[in-house]
Amino acid sequence: MSLLAVKDLCLSISGTEILRDIDLAVDAGEILGVIGESGSGKSMTALSIMQLLPRGSETGGVIALDGDNILAHSEAEMCAIRGDDIGMIFQEPMTALNPVKTIGEQVAETVMVHGKASKAEAMRIARETLDRVELPGDRFPLSRYPHELSGGQRQRVVIAMAIALRPRLLIADEPTTALDVTTQAQILTLLKRLVDEDGMGLMLITHDLAVVADIADKIVIMKDGEVVEAGETVALFRAMKHPYTRALFEASSHQPARVPPTGGAGAVPVLEVKDVIRDYKLPRTSFFRPAGHFRAVNSVSLTIRKGENVGLVGESGCGKSTLSRAIMALEATQGGVIRIEGEPVTTDKGASLAARRKMQVVFQDPYGSFNPRHRVDRLVAEPFHLLGSEAPKGAARRKAVEEALVNVGLSAADADKYVHEFSGGQRQRIAIARALIIHPSLIVLDEAVSALDVSVRAQILDLLADLSDRLQLSYLFISHDLTVVRAITDRVLVMKSGEIVEAGDTLEVFTNPQHPYTRTLIEAAPNLEQALAAREAAAAAPAE
Amino acid sequence: MSVYLARRFVSLTLSLIVASFVVFFLLEIVPGDPASFMLGLNATPEAAANLRQALGLEGPPIERYFVWVLGLLQGEFGISYAYKVPVADLVADRLWVSLPLAIYALTLSTLIAFPVGIIAAAKRNSPADLGIMGATQLGVAVPNFWFAMLLVLFFAVTLRWFSAGGFPGWDEGFWISMKALTLPAIALALPQASILARVMRSSLLDTLSEDYVRSARAKGLSRRQALWRHALRNALIPVLTIIGLQFSFLLAGAIIIENVFFLPGLGRLVFQAITSRDLIVVKSVVMILVFAVILVTFIVDITYAIADPRLRRAR
Fold first, then answer.
1. Contacts of residue A96 in chain B, CB cutoff 8 Å?
2. Is the Cβ pair A113, B234 closer than 8 Å?
3. Cα gap B28→A457, rounded to integer Å
4. A419: closest CA of chain B, how far (Å)
5. Residue A544 predicted with pLDDT over 60
6. How many CB atoms lie within 10 A of CB A71?
C-alpha cells in the first residue's frame, strides 16, 4: 500500500472544474515529481491533500494516507494531521514566515500546536531541527527574526517547520523557484537527504523538468487539471509517450534560430559602460560615525555592439539589476561613464531625451508592469513622450501602435483591449511592443522571461531572436536562468559582488568557464540531459 | 532600537520647534488687536498703546518669540488678557476635563473596535460581518454631536440616568465625575470606534491572506489559532496609527461635544479665547496640544517597534 494514494480526485471551485480524475501515489522514502505549467492544477492537487483549499471548493474521489481517506476527515481532524503527518513547504520563502516571530518560536510552534511537548522541549526540538536543515546554532540562534536571514536560509526555516515532527509525507510546492541556482541546488540536496534519513515520502511540485530529473523517482505530468503521463523518471523522459511531455521537453531546452550579428566592429557601440560605480548609503549605526557605503556596482565596464545580444548573469544581490537601472538612467552613479550610441547617460542633470529614446526596458512581471485602467494603445504609445514634439499624432500614432503589436505577433485590433484580457505571455508581448515602438537601439530585458511557463518562454525567445535579427536590435539580457541566457545571447558577462568576473562568447564561457564562480554557477544549474545520463550510468553500473 | 528611538526623538523635537514658530507667527498676522478689543470701541490710541506695552505686545516679533518660548520652557505661559489669571492655571483646570474625557473615549472606542473588527474579519461575508459593516458605516457617517443629542434625549431626558450636561469637578468624587463624562465619552467614542473597527477588519483581512498564515495552517493551526497567533499582531501597525491620530483628535477636537454637554474643556477654552482675541491663551493651548500630539506620536512609534522587530533596526 502506498503512503499517499490519490484516486479519481476531482475538484471544483464555485462550480468551475479545476481537477479531473487525478491519480497519483507516493511511497515512503520516495520522491514524486509533479510537473506542469501554471494553471495545470498541480498546486491545487497539493492543497487538496492538505485540505487548505479556497472557499467554495468541492472535492471528490479518495486521498488515502496509509489507507485512511483523509477527504472524509473533519476540519479538526485535519488540523491534527497537518504538520504532524503531512508537512508542506511553499514557493515564496520571503513571505512564508511571520515577520514578528523568531524562527525558534515558529519552528517550535509546529511541535506545540500538536501538543507533543512542553515549551522547553519544543524549543529543544526546534534547535535540533534547525541543525538538521543546516542552520547551526552558533550562527542561527533561535532568537533570530526572519528578516535577518537570506531567501535560502528562510526556505530552510520553512523546511524545518514542516519536518519538525518528522511527518510521513512532505509536499513541496515549487520550493526552489524563487531561489538562485546555487541555493536551489543546496535546497534540493537537503530535501533529498531528509527523505533518505527519515524515510519520508516527498511530493515535489515544479514547472522545471530539470529540477526533478535529478532527484525524483517517479514523475507525474499534469495539464489542464489532468494527469497526462506518469511513470518512472528516466523511462518517462526517454520514452515521452504523450505529445505534451515531448512539447514540454523541447520547450525547456528550446534554442531559437539566430543569425549572428554581422556588423559594427568599428562603428560606435550601442552601449558603452566604462568603470561605472554605484554606491548605496548604509543606514547609520551610530550618531557619532558617518554612514557607511555599500558598493553595489564596482567599476564595471562593458560594450554592446549593434545587433548583439549580451547576457548578464549572477545571483540575486550581485548588482546586475542595479547596473541595468544605472544604464537606463534610473539610478545615479558615483563614477564612470555610460554612453548609448555615443550619447552620455551619466550627466549631472540625468539622461537627455536623446539618450533615453535610444533604450527601452522589459521587466519580469507581465502582471505588474501595466496600468490596468489604460487600454493597450495608450500603454504601447507611452514611450512617445520621449520624442517630444516629434511624436506621431492621431492616425500616425495609431498606425505605429498597430505596427508594433503586429511585430510582436499580436493583432492590430488588440490595441483597443485592456491588459486583463491577455495571458501572461501575451502581456509580455505587449511589453515588448511598448519597448519597440520608438525604435530603440537597445532593449534591456530584466528577467523578461523568468515568470513565464516553458512553452510560452520558448515562443517569446523566438520572438526576441527574430526581432533582433530583423531590426538589428541589441539586447542586454539579464537573467538568473543560465539555460535561457545560453539560448539567446552572443556574449555573456558573469557578475559577482558588484564586479564582472568573467566575460566572453556565450558558448565559450559555458563550455569552458575560467572563473571558479562561473563554474559553480554552471554546475549548480539543473541540466535535464546531464541528469538523465548520470542516472542511466548509475543504473547501468553494477551494484556494489 | 536605541538608535531608532533617538532618531524619532530628534525628529519630534524638530517638529516641536517648527510648530512653535508657525503658531507664534500665524497669530502675529491674525487681524484684530487684543488691546483695542479689551478697551472697547471708545478707547483712545494712546490708551491702546499703553495697554499693548503692558501686555508685552510691543517690540520686534522675533524677540517676543524667544521670550515666549523661554517662558514656555519654564512653565510660564503668561497672563490671560481676558481672565486676568495665569494661563497655566486656566489650562490646567481645563486639561483635567479634556484629558480624562479623551482617555475615556479612546478606551471605549478601542474596547468596542477590537472585538468587533476581529469578529468581522474572522467571519468575513457572514451575516455578522455584513451587520458590523453596516453599523460602522452608519457610525462613520453620523456626526458625533447628533449622537450626543440622541444620548441626552434617551439617557438623560427619558430615562433620567445621567444628567444632561455640566461637570461637577473632581472634588465631588471620582465616580460622580466619571458619570458626568460618560455620555460625552460615548458620543465621542462611537464614530471613532466605527473607523477603528473598519481599519482593524481590513488590516486583519490583509494579513489573513498572507503566506505566513497559510504556512501556519500547514503546521496544523486551526483558522482561529492562525488568526490570534500570526495575523493579529501583524495587523496592529495600521490600527496603532489610527489610535494615535484619534487620541490627538479627541483631545483637541471635542469642542462641539464639550459645547453640547457644557463641559469646561480645552476645546471650549480655545473657542472662547479666539472670539475674545485672548491670543496668549490660544498660543499656549495650541502649543500644549501640539506637544500632546507629538508625545502621542512618539509613544505610537515606540509601540510600532515593540510590535514589529523589523523597525527596531535603525532605518
1. 211-212, 214-215
2. no
3. 68
4. 25
5. no
6. 16
Q: Which three cell numbers stand for residue A479?
A: 537573467
For chain A, how long is the longest CA-to-CA vector? 77
Higher pLDDT, B51 or A18: A18
Q: CA A75, CA A87: separation in Å to the nearest integer? A: 16
Its CATH architecture, for the domain B87-312, is: Orthogonal Bundle (1.10)
Contacts of A89 in chain B (CB under 8 A): 218
pLDDT digits 0-9 by tens, B22-81 = 888 887 776 667 677 777 767 777 777 777 777 777 777 888 888 888 888 887 777 787
Which residues on chain B place their C-beta less than 8 Å from a C-beta of chain A?
Answer: 3, 6, 210-212, 214-222, 225, 229-230, 233-234, 307-310, 313-315
A262 confidence band (pLDDT: 50, 70, 90) = low
A392 vs A387, A431, A439, CA distance in Å? Answer: 9, 20, 13
Mean of all residue pLDDT scores within chain B: 84
For residues A338-363, give the mean pLDDT.
83
Name the 3-class secondary structure at B148.
helix
**In terms of DSSP bridges, do strands A57-65 and A68-69 run parallel, antiparallel, or are they unpaired?**
antiparallel
CB contact under 8 A, B214 and A110: no
Residue A264 predicted with pLDDT over 70: no
Domains observed in chain A: 4-252 (3.40.50.300), 271-358+440-512 (3.40.50.300), 378-438 (no CATH)
Confidence at residue A35, expressed as pLDDT on a 0 to 100 scale? 92
* Residue A286 pLDDT exceeds 70: no
Give yes or no for A115 touching B (CB within 8 A): no
Question: Are B218 and A50 inside 8 Å of each other by CB?
Answer: yes
A77: Cα separation from own chain's centroid: 35
The percent of residues in chain B predicted with pLDDT above 70, rounded, is 95
Q: Which among A82, A92, A97 has CB closest to B220?
A: A82
State whether residue A158 sits within 8 Å of chain B by CB: yes
Q: Which residue of A has its CA nearest to B231?
A: A98
pLDDT score recorded for residue B314: 46
Facing B314 at nearest CB: one of A109, A158, A285: A285
pLDDT tens sequence across B229-246: 999 989 988 898 899 888
> Which chain A residues are closer than 8 Å to B3 by Cβ?
284-287
Report mean pLDDT in 10-residue bins for chain B, 315 residues.
Answer: 80 89 81 70 76 74 84 81 82 86 92 94 90 91 85 81 78 82 88 93 92 92 92 90 86 79 84 82 85 87 84 60
pLDDT over threshold 80, residue A359: yes
Task: Please judge whether A114 and B220 are an interchain contact, meaning their C-beta atoms are less than 8 angstroms apart.
Answer: yes
Q: Provide the 3-class DSSP secondary structure of residue A244.
A: helix
CB-closest option in B210, B218, B315 to A283: B315
3-class secondary-structure state, position B219:
coil
Give the SS3 label for residue B75. coil
Q: Provide the shortest C-alpha distance from residue A110 to chain B (in Å).
A: 5
Phi-psi region of A515 (alpha: psi -120 to 50; beta: other; left: phi over 0): beta
Binary contact (B230, A98; C-beta < 8 A): yes
Residue spans of beta strands (DSSP E) within A162-292? 169-173, 201-206, 218-223, 226-232, 271-281
Is the per-residue pLDDT at A130 higher than 90?
yes
Q: Is A389 on the interface with B (CB under 8 A)?
A: no
Using the predicted structure, report yes or no on whether residue A33 has a pLDDT greater than 90.
Answer: yes
Inspect the interface and report whether the beta carbons of B3 and A284 lie closer than 8 Å.
yes
Chain A residue numbers with beta carbons less than 8 Å from the beta carbon of B217 are 52, 82
Structural contact between residues A180 and A315, judged by C-beta atoms closer than 8 angstroms? yes
| Annotated domain spans of chain B | 87-312
Q: How many residues does chain B have?
A: 315
Helix (H) or strand (E) holding B270: helix B266-275
Which grid cell is A121?
522541549
